[in-house]
Amino acid sequence: MFYHVQSLINEIIPDEPDPSAANALQEGLGGQFGEMRTMMQYLFQSFNFRGDGVPYLDLIQGVGVEEISHVELISKTISRLVDGAPEYNGKKFDTPGKGGVATMEMAKEQKNAHHFIVGAQGALPVDAAGNPWNGAWVHSHGNLVLDLMDNLVLESTGRLQKCRIYQMSENKTLRATVAFLIVRDEAHQAAFAKALETLGVNWNKVLPIPKFDSDQYPEVRRLRDAGIHREQYHFRLDSSMMEKIFSGPAPLNDGTELVTLKEPRESYPIPQAPERPEEFAPGLDRELQELADALNDFKEKMQAPKKARAVKRGTKRK
Amino acid sequence: MFYHVQSLINEIIPDEPDPSAANALQEGLGGQFGEMRTMMQYLFQSFNFRGDGVPYLDLIQGVGVEEISHVELISKTISRLVDGAPEYNGKKFDTPGKGGVATMEMAKEQKNAHHFIVGAQGALPVDAAGNPWNGAWVHSHGNLVLDLMDNLVLESTGRLQKCRIYQMSENKTLRATVAFLIVRDEAHQAAFAKALETLGVNWNKVLPIPKFDSDQYPEVRRLRDAGIHREQYHFRLDSSMMEKIFSGPAPLNDGTELVTLKEPRESYPIPQAPERPEEFAPGLDRELQELADALNDFKEKMQAPKKARAVKRGTKRK
Amino acid sequence: MFYHVQSLINEIIPDEPDPSAANALQEGLGGQFGEMRTMMQYLFQSFNFRGDGVPYLDLIQGVGVEEISHVELISKTISRLVDGAPEYNGKKFDTPGKGGVATMEMAKEQKNAHHFIVGAQGALPVDAAGNPWNGAWVHSHGNLVLDLMDNLVLESTGRLQKCRIYQMSENKTLRATVAFLIVRDEAHQAAFAKALETLGVNWNKVLPIPKFDSDQYPEVRRLRDAGIHREQYHFRLDSSMMEKIFSGPAPLNDGTELVTLKEPRESYPIPQAPERPEEFAPGLDRELQELADALNDFKEKMQAPKKARAVKRGTKRK
Amino acid sequence: MFYHVQSLINEIIPDEPDPSAANALQEGLGGQFGEMRTMMQYLFQSFNFRGDGVPYLDLIQGVGVEEISHVELISKTISRLVDGAPEYNGKKFDTPGKGGVATMEMAKEQKNAHHFIVGAQGALPVDAAGNPWNGAWVHSHGNLVLDLMDNLVLESTGRLQKCRIYQMSENKTLRATVAFLIVRDEAHQAAFAKALETLGVNWNKVLPIPKFDSDQYPEVRRLRDAGIHREQYHFRLDSSMMEKIFSGPAPLNDGTELVTLKEPRESYPIPQAPERPEEFAPGLDRELQELADALNDFKEKMQAPKKARAVKRGTKRK
Amino acid sequence: MFYHVQSLINEIIPDEPDPSAANALQEGLGGQFGEMRTMMQYLFQSFNFRGDGVPYLDLIQGVGVEEISHVELISKTISRLVDGAPEYNGKKFDTPGKGGVATMEMAKEQKNAHHFIVGAQGALPVDAAGNPWNGAWVHSHGNLVLDLMDNLVLESTGRLQKCRIYQMSENKTLRATVAFLIVRDEAHQAAFAKALETLGVNWNKVLPIPKFDSDQYPEVRRLRDAGIHREQYHFRLDSSMMEKIFSGPAPLNDGTELVTLKEPRESYPIPQAPERPEEFAPGLDRELQELADALNDFKEKMQAPKKARAVKRGTKRK
Amino acid sequence: MFYHVQSLINEIIPDEPDPSAANALQEGLGGQFGEMRTMMQYLFQSFNFRGDGVPYLDLIQGVGVEEISHVELISKTISRLVDGAPEYNGKKFDTPGKGGVATMEMAKEQKNAHHFIVGAQGALPVDAAGNPWNGAWVHSHGNLVLDLMDNLVLESTGRLQKCRIYQMSENKTLRATVAFLIVRDEAHQAAFAKALETLGVNWNKVLPIPKFDSDQYPEVRRLRDAGIHREQYHFRLDSSMMEKIFSGPAPLNDGTELVTLKEPRESYPIPQAPERPEEFAPGLDRELQELADALNDFKEKMQAPKKARAVKRGTKRK
After folding, report:
1. What is the value of pTM for the model shown?
2. For E220-278, how does the pLDDT look when each residue is reduced to its tens digit (9 = 90+)?
3. Which are the contacts of F239, defined by CB distance < 8 A and separation ≥ 6?
4. Of E186, E196, E200, E190, nearest to E146 (Cα)?
5. Do C141 and F152 touch (CB under 8 A)?
6. Which residues of C touch F150 (CB under 8 A)?
């Protein structure tokens, strides 16, 4: 059974809209090696798990639960990136603020017209070529060794593709999220590689995939300096045996130690998306809006939860 | 951000394996109107939500979180239904107990050979015709009225199809899960219909879809007698404004009152699936098994969590 | 612009339900070489037609309009074949008349469970393997010679597959419709082959595809004896130049003469499908039914159109 | 059985080619909520209709027949928009008239290269992201209330998406067709909403979806002023009971009255598409063209039908 | 550039037709982890190969070329298994020989009706659930370590699924081919695991996947006894550096030595498939057959090549 | 059984990178009428071939084997076209040579982002709209006449689309490959048309499709002048009866004579693709590279095979 808090697993950094960066990032959400795949693959492997190897189950499922939060993060990031037109920032639908073009006027030239026609300037369950996510990509083989190897290939490909996406735009909104996912995918590579190490494999120096000098990726280096690449969270409200596997020296043989935690040390507020009249979103006219507002003491209570949402937020990583 | 407890939202009732019942139930999991769709549709609508209508957001997202637990429940149910051959129940791979046929010998005649070749006698992310789940089925239109109407059609179709599946097999494992989902889909119809009611629609007597005399579906009647059809859970660890909408008289105009709760009053243990040597699942040979067992004090700790998992379980519904 | 009469292009012959025959026939409706493809292919070729070769346009479009009526006929036929269980014929949902099994009890063992879970015992836009119809199958190349050759291959494959389906069941409902389509596909082969003949090709003896002794297919022979294989209809309410091509000796070099008509010499009543309570179809309870009946003088007027629908029907072919 | 006249349901307004506008408009043709879907969905619901609720059948089927004419209109519009390059207008293949670039030279940079490689500068059965139309999008649930609600969601989404497309280009060819479809989708929303009203639902003020001030969409306003949004046509050559439902006050509660007609008051000539030598379309060389021309008195008869096609055309809307 | 000899890489063992065994085997041909995938994946990786690591290129490409021969073998095997009905063996279309049912009479009840309607009792490019093969399954990541790991997972899954299929039927035609592929997949696991070993990985005892006592699979044991599991062929007519990697101790750490050969030590004749009049295959009537026979000295030369085809065949494995 | 030589069937002509030309060319590789389709269609037809019409079998299969080499050629060509950014030509990753933009900086604006995120600047098994190749496009009808006609339509469409692609870019790398394929598709049209001619069809002047004055396509004219359009290769290491059909006057009735050869008169070296650090391809860091180099006498032997690969290369066509 699953629960939720209205917080993000990483911070959304504001920057200009960038629809083609958003399109590239769709690969990380709805692509064959994106977060929807990792989420569904690990959940299916958990639900179909056989035998009493509970630490393996808890490892796979724990990573799977994290992936739902990655789907949430990456969706929110894409929504930010396609919300409006670059340098437009008009206060009103038809009044540009900084000389940019109104969103719908540039919409038909963007990479995926669905972002504007179908998704109301929001994230879509598709890849960077516009193909919808497909259930056949979920691999749940039943064989533990094979499932772990498949997961390792999945995380390696995910990280490889995100390293490529990182280079495709200097947009800060994009890079903050992509850098976080690069680092988490390294932790997930460690998780599945370590599980295979407990069964005898020695990876020597082939991991992680890909290798690079993180000085070239400052957002990545900052997160690695904070140790985010060697932590894994189990997100379990009862208890988990994940730590039986995810502890001790990292299987990447880089001298780091693995640490299992219940949850990330920090969480972040979810930015509220503005109304988009040109998308008819949410599309409540005055009459309907009054009905919505008439929900008992609505306006008043609106303030509190917003604050409540920020309390979990600790000191930010520097 | 998402969390998990290792419990089920409803009980798995044991019965004989029934692969074609499992195949029919795949529609409820990976079909166009199944639980994977509802889960992804409500999560995408939440992540793309615009404006300050928080009660509507919290309603959609709360139902979405519940759907992840439905995916868990229905996957587990399918796994039970395809695990082994009817009336076989051999203690060992090659020794039938009650005169049935060994699983792999009957496998090629079953409805979807993937259950045995690909899924290791587990659930698959496909529908009852073997087509993989498809991301294009997720509708997130951006327009609040339209999203709510789309969700109402989705829940109505889901419930309609499950009422048809219910009639297709008398298997108790199938019927217990299907009946639960029929009742929850009624609650979800109430949720979205009520939200539209706050915006002015009067549904009169057209809901729920479909209508039937629940005396014909005893498992359904028992759950309705317990009030499961008029409750909605928000599954939020911080706070939710769902109750602003989901309270007061039901929009189905049947005299019932809607109640918002944090979570269901009861939860249920997750049955451990047995090893399946004919599927090479989990496929650890003696050497690998010893390595797995060598995880520090593994065997010992194994007992505890199993008990821990049962504690949340309250008195069962009668 | 398109118009409709509530009549069928061929007669539905009653026989027992036969769900697996219905499944085979789905290939003729939603398969890659089925009627949905022919209909959409010819309509797209017509809408995209270039130049002043009006007789070619009118030929392609005329056949295309006929294909909509084929989609109607084959859908109705499939609906008949999956409507109920063989030898059941209960007057009421739960009272078998002739010792058969109730529909939903046999449903999960049928070839495509979607016929019962999704389609309410009706036709589906899918093929005989359960794959949905796909727009990529529509070929509109723009090049007239190539389009005509593609259409000839399409009609030949359609006819070939229907000759195979004919042999797969002795069900009279199936065979009557399949035989009609075999004969019409022969006429359509003649149409496209003749158009290519006007551009220089001599087909000699390779057509039609496939060749067989029609004495083995009595339903086919009867229709050929009536000349249905050498007629083509333009279905145009204004005027058509189809006859410029479709007249004179048949290109199959079998001594017959081609004849262009506005429409078939006969049309047939559309049988009304009964309600299916087990499918919740149409699913109007007593209250809703009363509302439906309250439509001004509804009951009274119901009788007239049914008779009206039969008037167009002439003497049947023998 | 279906018939055809060689006229359009709305006028094609000439303007410059605009391939990316054409690409956006593909969503309205081959998208999940486009005209191919509405056409097939209503036809399948009609062919699978159960029971004696003939007015409901006639309403669904009548709208379905209209949708075939919409597929015709939107295909023709897309063909116009991708036919040639903007500002090229060369009289001959290699001689630009107004300084634009020749079509094939700009082709590889356009949104969907298939428009030039596959479709010969014509419409394709795909959506705005290049995905082919898919049969799984056709919903025919069997349950009347649910089918009507599904249809209402379909029309609402179609209209919403077209309102978004309208804003994406000022091209007059695009806007004329899109405005017409926006207005007709409003009529279709009225049709299905009214049918649900006869079963008890009161929509109050939530329809139509989306709402907007039509002064911002002059082409839309002009059609609404002409009353096109409150008419429905049954396109039946025999007789129809559609009017039993589609009459009286509009369910959108805007004070208008619904009117059922046999067909639209006006129809429009179909523009002939020019030959495209760079696409080898139609691709008849001199020898083949002479054969085509040799069809008995071809050239002579060519003039007449062109005039004949214009006769139905009445006074245009102003 | 590619060449061909008209011989098979393994022998087709005759047995009765078995359409559902054929359907299961389709997974090995057109499934996500079948031979079409391995073939295309290794060819794409070869064609996209970067850098000067020629031994790695030659290893991947050499295995890829072998996979084309596997596609040939498995297609032929499926063709055998669906060719006719079990125990029918009539000399003529309509004369049963041993009391079985004629093929087309049983066809509509078989697992995939396409085998009879579409494929003329031949192999199809689809999986065991009837889904067509999909290009998105081909992984060519560009990163050498990742490509090798992906290939190892692919071979492991292929072998796992074939071990499951082996158990699903005792048909000798099926088992002979499946056993050969199980052994070759083991060799391919060795190939990619060895390549990763050259880059530092130590696999210890986790391979091959799956592990089993080959005494339970006599056809497999016989091939392993002949050493087929530790050979790899490069199929290159010029030269190959494959042996730089594929030599020395096997990476599965089982004490065997790897051997690189140009081609298998033996090859096998390709059985000629009989005509199938009920499928209209090849469909030449008397007139057309005479034209085919009239090809200069056709009948005479027919004998020679058949013999020629058998010459390469050496002593068979025992 | 299949063999390989490390040579190309035509020469790769160097020119600047051009990602959108590469995208257009994907249609020729992974499109519905591209080389992957022709290859798989002819191989499946060969593997499923029935009866003793060996010359027909050898013709279909021989063309099929050639198509594998076309897949190789076109993949290599696409790889060249997407390898790097136009006018960049930096010696190192970060040092532009001619003022162009670095590859990853322009990547997100290109037609298919998958070329950079997924394919590491290599060819993909997809079409020009980004849709993956689909097995349902393979037609193997079983009926010889129909299969030959289907193949003729396939080759005609392939050639038509390539003639359109030729006009879309002046890039020499693109045009050299496309021109070669245009000429070979003409030969393949001749092959299947001739086979149908042996069965009685007279094509008169409708072929080839499309027709054009080859003076407008100099690369095409040069190859036709060399006679490449009237040769067919059987690529058989044992023997082939292809010549029984492919000899004598061409069926296109243009006065040429058909010639059957074992293989093309010339073959061409395969250019080695450079490493791409920005794609992490091949991704060996210093440690892993040393391990790779440590393969026994690796560096030394590297020179030899490169020369060896060039020996087959004869005098080039002028």
Report:
1. 0.95
2. 999 999 999 999 999 999 999 999 999 999 998 889 999 999 999 999 999 999 999 99
3. E305, E308
4. E196
5. no
6. 153, 157
